[in-house]
Amino acid sequence: MVDNSKIRVVVGMSGGVDSSVSALLLKQQGYDVVGVFMKNWDDTNDDGVCTATEDYEDVKKVADKIGIPYYSINFEKEYWERVFQYFLKEYKAGRTPNPDIMCNTEVKFKSFLEYALDLDADYLAMGHYAKTMVDENGVTHMMRPKDGNKDQTYFLSQLTQEQIKRVMFPLQDLTKPEVRRIAEEAGLVNAKKKDSTGICFIGERNFKHFLSEFLPAQGGDMVTPDGKVVGHHAGLMYYTIGQRQGLGLGSTKESTAPWFVVGKDLEKNQLIVEQGYDSPRLYADRLQASGMTFFTGNPEEDTEFKATAKFRYRQCDVGVTVKYHAASKTADVYFDEPARAVTPGQALVLYNGEECLGGGNIDAAFKDDKKLQLV
Ligand SMILES: Nc1ncnc2c1ncn2[C@@H]1O[C@H](COP(=O)(O)OP(=O)(O)OP(=O)(O)O)[C@@H](O)[C@H]1O
Q1: Could you tell me the sign of the dihedral formed by the alpha carbons of 49, 180, 314, 354, in that order?
Q2: What is the pLDDT of residue 208?
Q3: Where is this site: Interaction with tRNA?
Q4: 0.90 cut: is pTM over it?
Q5: Cα of 19 to ligand 1 centre, how many Å?
């Protein structure tokens, strides 16, 4: 059996079952394991209970059970400056941001990784469902994990080679039910703990209410694409392209079909709405993305290649042709078939079969070379 005892691995422990089982597996494999809990947000809830404190209690219990040392580190300042300010700026600009991606690139796999390396760690391990593979040239590739249903490569898509080569994902060949079973058999207190959902700093709170505490909302008209006023919106930032819920609009003489958000006019502060799921205004055949990052390093020259892509987290891959512009690190992505509700601010993520190639941020979507008025 290989001797891993000289290899130090810092495990990011959230108090959840995934990172707990990650720590357990590494310990069983003989690594020198250290658990670290990160506090990113002062999340005292409406009843005055700080969920981070409860989570850290779980980390302590699990670490004691497994027999590993543990620490806690505060990254509230970094999180506030690099993730939350970006989140607010994007909403202000009418876009729909993805703070989880930013949290990974700027906090979990940057400040936290640096902290782990300062603790003399050889690797940082996380309980994400993702997989890495090192090729014969020593280059690390990002792969889809065994559990396709939990696949988190979408949120990791903007990490670099420098970051992923120091990272381990111990759950890469396990499914979530298998992870829960391992936790139960090992008697971990959080074996049945509920999965976290939604944006971490909002938790179970009402999204509109949360956002209104940070950004002043300016209400305006809801209009049809030909300019007819049909209602009032509470602030453009509360709506996302393709959204149906919460518009409060009923049937019309012409149609009983539900209403959907099909655009935003920031200048006029108007929300553009239309009846019917399949509005042609929602369908794009191309997008532009910036800040493109490839796990194996960005190509130095302009390139064109076929791939599959996701434009949002829970979506089946679609076939695309990518034209990458090396100087600006931007890409034009042409879809094999028109795609619905491609939303500026969300991430574009590219795949080649089982491999996740990388991604960027969606800036604009087009149909027949005409830019859709989505922000
Ligand atoms: N507060 C935290 N401190 C340290 N590491 C964290 C923290 N939050 C998340 N992580 C790390 O990031 C991974 C993915 O985070 P995510 O929020 O997606 O959790 P999850 O899939 O619900 O996992 P878990 O069951 O471990 O909470 C976690 O498994 C853990 O390794």
Answers
A1: positive
A2: 81
A3: 128, 346
A4: yes
A5: 6
Per-residue pLDDT band at 45 (split at 50, 70, 90): low
Amino acid at 229: V
The CATH number of the structural domain formed by 281-371 is 2.40.30.10
Q: What is the pLDDT of residues 221-280, one digit of tens each?
A: 999 999 999 999 999 999 999 999 889 888 888 889 999 999 999 999 999 999 999 899
- Mutation to probe ligand 1, out of 9, 10, 17, 18 (largest number of atoms < 8 A from CB): 18
Handedness of CA 42, 8, 163, 190 (dihedral sign): negative
The tokens of 134 are what? 């090192």
Residue 98 DSSP SS3: coil
Protein residue with its CA nearest to atom 5 in ligand 1:
12
Q: Which atom of ligand 1 is nearest to the CA of 195?
A: 22
Question: Phi and psi at residue 261, in whole multiples of 5°?
Answer: -80, 125
Give the atom of ligand 1 at the shortest distance from the alpha carbon of 12.
5
In which residue are the tokens 């494999």 written? 29
CATH (residue range 217-277): 2.30.30.280
Identify residue 109 by its one-letter amino acid code.
F
Ligand 1 pocket, residues with Cβ under 6 angstroms: 12-14, 16-19, 37-38, 108, 126-128, 195-196, 200
Residue 45 and residue 21 in contact, taking contact as beta carbons nearer than 8 Å: no
What residue ranges of the chain are covered by domains with CATH 2.40.30.10? Answer: 281-371
What token pair was written down for 269?
């502060």
Domain 8-185 is in which class?
A: alpha beta
| Residues 288/346, Cβ–Cβ less than 8 Å | no
Q: Which residue has a Cα nearest atom 27 of ligand 1?
A: 16
Domain with CATH 3.40.50.620 in the chain: 8-185
Which of the residues are catalytic? 103, 200
Q: Which atom of ligand 1 is nearest to the CA of 38?
A: 3
Cβ neighbours of residue 365 closer than 8 Å, sequence gap 6 or more: 284, 286, 287, 288, 342, 343, 344, 371, 372, 374
Tell me the ipTM for this assembly. Answer: 0.97
